[in-house]
Design brief:
Elements (H helix, E strand, L loop, with lengths): L5 H12 L9 E4 L2 E4 H23 L8 H21 L2
Helix pairs in contact: 2-3
């Protein structure tokens, strides 16, 4: 088995960063400021989870759910990731 020398270990973080995309995180201007894409997707996910919570309470579906917190967190995460893929996906 090949062991890395301390000098090689110093260069390991540089080698890992070399695989990163040179374009950086997606940003877009909004009201005069540049927002990172992940922040806007997270806010959309939170708003979707809150909106679904209100809709489920009004329709009575919320009373049937057994793990409410996990359900709404999962729905918010799915919404945020869907927005990310639609807006910044390949």
């Amino acid at each position: 088995m090949h062991r890395l020398t301390p000098r090689q270990l110093c260069w390991a973080p540089v080698a890992m960063l070399a695989a990163c995309a040179p374009g950086g995180a997606p940003t877009f201007p909004l009201v005069g400021a540049y927002f990172p894409g992940w922040m806007m997707c997270g806010l959309i996910g939170i708003a979707t989870a809150v909106g679904l919570r209100v809709a489920f309470v009004l329709t009575g579906i919320d009373a049937v759910l057994s793990f409410r917190l996990f359900t709404y967190v999962a729905l918010g995460t799915i919404a945020a990731l869907a927005v990310w893929v639609l807006a910044f996906g390949p």
